[in-house]
Amino acid sequence: MADKVLFLTGKLAEVSLRRVLADMAPLDFEHRVHQIGVSVAALMTDKMIARRLTAEIIQDSTQIIVPGRCRGDLEALSAQLGVDVVRGPEEVKDLPLFFGRERKQPDLSRYDVNIFAEIVDAPERSVESIVERARYYGDCGANVIDIGCLPEEKFPHLEEAIIALHEEGFKVSVDSVELDDLRRAGNAGADYLLSLTEKNYHLAEEVDAIPILVPAEMGSLASLERAMELMDKINKPWIADPILDPIHFGLTNSIVRYHELRRKYPDAPIMMGVGNLTELTDADTSGINALLFGIISELNITNVLATEVSPHARRAIKEADIARRMMFSAREESSLPRDFTSDLLVAHERRPFPDTAQDIAELASKIKDPNYRIKIAEQGIYMFNRDGLMQDTDPFAFYPQLNLKEDTGHAFYLGAELARAQIAWQLGKRYTQDEELQWGCAIAKVEQDLSKQKTEGSTMTTGKKCGTA
C-alpha cells in the first residue's frame, strides 16, 4: 500500500509547493497539500500544528512533512497526532533532493522587460567610442542603446552614430530635451525617441520612431494620459513613462503613479527609468535593482531605462538583466524571488557559515599534520593544525602562535587566506580555503577566471567586461 503524505505549508509557499510536487510526478506515494493558515511557512511551530490539525485534515495520512524551518519537538508532535511528522528541506525547491531526485534548475533564459541602456555623454564621444560603449552594454544585456544628448551642446555626428549602431545590429533610442535633436534622430531612423509630451507629440506624425511619452507637467498623470490619448487619435504606437522620482523628491508618489497608470490601462506599454534611484542613492545598486524589478514585474512594466554614470553604479545594466530574469521566473512559478540566482547577493550570502564551531572543533581534533586549515563560523575565524585550534576575529591575533620557521612563501599564503577569511566573516560570505570569494555579478566570471589564471602562474587576454568599460 502506497504511503499517503500530507504536506503542510503557508499562504506564500502553497502555489510553489504544488508546482514543485507536480514537476516531480510521477510520485511513488499519494499526497495532499494543506495550507495551515500562516503567511510564512517558517513561522509554523509544533504547538500551532497541534492546534490546527484535526482528524478530518489528517485523515489516513501515514506521514506529515512540515517546512524545514518549522520549530519545535516533532517527535513529541508525532506521538500526539499519531502520525510520523518529518521536517522537510528549508526551501521548497529542494524537495526533489529530499526525495532523492535532482533539483529542477531555474530557467533564467526568459524575460519580458527591455533594457534601454543610455550613453549619457554621447555628444562628447566619437562614433567609434559610442559603438564600443554600446557593445559593452549589449554584452551586459541591453536590448536598446539610448543615445543621450546634452543640453545646448552640438551633436553633429548624431546621424552617423545612429547608422553605425544599426549596422552593429542594435536598436537605437535618442534622448533629448531639444525637439530638433529628436527630429534629426527620427529622420535618421532611430527606433525610439525620449521624450515627447502632449505639447510636442505631433513630431510622431513626421517620423516612424516610437515615442516615450512623459508628463508635460512634473508629476501630472493627467498630462501623460492626454498625451496617450492624442497618440491614439493619430493611430501611432507609444510607451508611457510617469517618471520615477528620487527619494525625498517624490519617490513614493511616483510609484503610486505607476500603479495608478497600470490600474487604469491594463495593457499600456510602460517604461520606468531606474537611474533616479540607482544613481542618486548611496547604496549598493544590486539591492535597489532587485527591489525595483520586483515592482516592475508586479506592474508588468516592459521597458526600463538604465544608466551607469556614478562609479558605484558600474554594474547597473548587468544587475538589471539579472533582476528581470529572476523576477520573471519567480512570477511564473508564483514563488518568492529566492534560490533562482545568487548573482545579486554581492556583499552577503544567505548561507555564509556552513560549519558550526562544533563541526570545526571535531575536524581539528582529527588533523595529524602541520598544515594549517582555515575556516569561519558565526563566532569568527578558526585556524588549526595538529598542534591545536585557534579562534579569533582578528587575523593578527594568530601571528604570535604561528610557527612559520622563516618560510616567507607560507607566511604570504596564510596572510592572503586570513585576509579573505576576515572579509568573508565580516560581511557574511562563504569562505573556502584556496578559493576566491564570490561576489555575484560585481565581478564578471571572466575576471574571476583571469585571477585564477594569475594565481596559477599563467596569463589570459580578455576584452571589455561588464562593469569595466
Q: Could you describe the 3D structure shown?
A:
The chain has 469 residues and is α/β, with parallel strands linked by helices. The protein has three domains: 4-98, Rossmann fold; 114-332, TIM Barrel, CATH 3.20.20.20; 357-427, no CATH class. It contains 16 helices and 15 strands. It has helices at residues 14-23, 46-52, 55-58, 74-81, 95-98, 127-139, 158-167, 179-187, 221-233, 251-264, 275-278, 285-298, 316-332, 357-364, 408-427, 445-455, and strands spanning 4-9, 30-35, 63-66, 84-87, 114-119, 144-148, 171-175, 192-196, 210-213, 239-240, 271-273, 303-306, 373-377, 380-385, 388-392. The strands form three sheets. It has an eight-stranded parallel β-sheet with strand order 10-9-8-7-6-5-12-11. Strand 13 (373-377) and strand 14 form a beta hairpin. It is flat, with a radius of gyration of 28 Å. The model is unreliable at 448-464 (pLDDT under 50).
Which tags fit this structure?
Rossmann fold; alpha/beta; TIM Barrel; 15 strands; single chain; 16 helices
Summarize the structure.
The chain is built from 16 helices and 15 strands. It is α/β, with parallel strands linked by helices and 469 residues long.
Secondary-structure blueprint:
Layout: E1 4-9, H1 14-23, E2 30-35, H2 46-52, H3 55-58, E3 63-66, H4 74-81, E4 84-87, H5 95-98, E5 114-119, H6 127-139, E6 144-148, H7 158-167, E7 171-175, H8 179-187, E8 192-196, E9 210-213, H9 221-233, E10 239-240, H10 251-264, E11 271-273, H11 275-278, H12 285-298, E12 303-306, H13 316-332, H14 357-364, E13 373-377, E14 380-385, E15 388-392, H15 408-427, H16 445-455
Parallel strand pairs: 1-2, 1-3, 3-4, 5-6, 5-12, 6-7, 7-8, 8-9, 9-10, 11-12
Antiparallel strand pairs: 13-14, 14-15
Helix pairs in contact: 2-4, 6-7, 12-13
